[in-house]
Amino acid sequence: MAEVKKSWTIQFNERGFPHVQQAFVLPPDMMKEADPFILLAEDWFKRGTFGDHPHKGFQTITYVIDGRLEHIDNKGGRGILEAGDVQYMNAGSGARHAEEPVAEDIVHSLQLWLNLPASLKQSEPFYQDIYSENVPVKKIGPAQVRVFAGNGGPMKPLVPFMMNEISLPAGEQYTHKLEPDHTAFVYVLGGRCAFGENETVLEKGQAALLTKGHDIQIKSEARSKVLIYSGKPHGDPIITHGPFVMNTQQEIREAFLDYQSGKFGPEAK
Question: DSSP readout, 31-66?
């Protein structure tokens, strides 16, 4: 059985207009311990926050909790995500896009940065929009489990990755299956739960890294909603600088040169 290895309370930062509030649910200083995960950011923002910008060497999984989020990329892609929708992006060899609220909406989102192994750093960029109505919901005992990735979920990531949202009524228990070789972490979106046989209690606004195991036991002490992310670590060296995640400083320099010389293509607009 998996247990809570490390837990923490999320620190939210008031940013003002247009980036209203921001927090690192999974802070970037944990990226080596949390391999293959780089960070998980939670944001509340208005239009003008995430205009045209580049990425290279990793993947993003963006979950819209509230508001309407318009995606535009410089390959002609465009779409709108609403509450409950998710977008998977493979930045690979270099992507350039914008993620902005529609009209006067305030978007509340979670964006996960998922590292690519060295062998896939130069893979072709692509996007996959996953609408809430296409996400299977499994009833497993008292739990309702939304399956975004893994176990028949619609997301098609390039690396082994699972993403599930678990809803539990108060006073119920559920055992969630994990891949024993995966790194897994949880984020409590609402309520209060005890995790593992050691029954470590986490409540809304808290997150935890788990030990490796086949299952994690969850007991709800209140009506609860929990996100569980898990992915297979690859152990490659990791160097980050702004929107680029590579294996060496030289590759970071090359990424900046490629972007500045126009190899990422024109502005997304």
Answer: TTTTTTEEEEEEEEE-TTSS-SEEEBSEEEEEEEEE
Structure tokens that stand for 3 in this block: 């247990």
182 is in an annotated binding site: no
User: What is the C-alpha separation between 179 and 156, in angstroms, rounded?
Assistant: 17
pTM: 0.96
Establish whether 234 is an annotated binding residue. Answer: no
**Distance from chain centroid for Cα 255:** 23
- DSSP lists the bridge partners of residue 185 as 209, 229
The annotation status of 55 as a binding-site residue, yes or no, is yes
- Please enumerate in sequence order all residues whose Cβ is within 8 A of that of 64, keeping only pairs 6 or more positions apart, or say none: 81, 82, 83, 84, 85, 86, 107, 108, 109
Contact present, 32 and 226 (Cβ < 8 Å): no
Q: Among positive and negative, which fits the CA dihedral 97, 102, 103, 105?
A: negative
Domain 4-231 matching CATH 3.40.50.300: the answer reads no
Would you state the pLDDT for residue 15? 87
Element (H, E) at 146: strand 143-149
Q: What is the mean pLDDT of each run of 10 residues along the chain (269 residues)?
A: 98 93 97 98 97 97 98 92 97 96 97 98 96 98 98 96 98 97 98 97 98 97 98 96 97 96 92
53 is in an annotated binding site: yes
pLDDT for 18 equals 96
User: Is residue 120 helix, strand or coil?
Assistant: helix
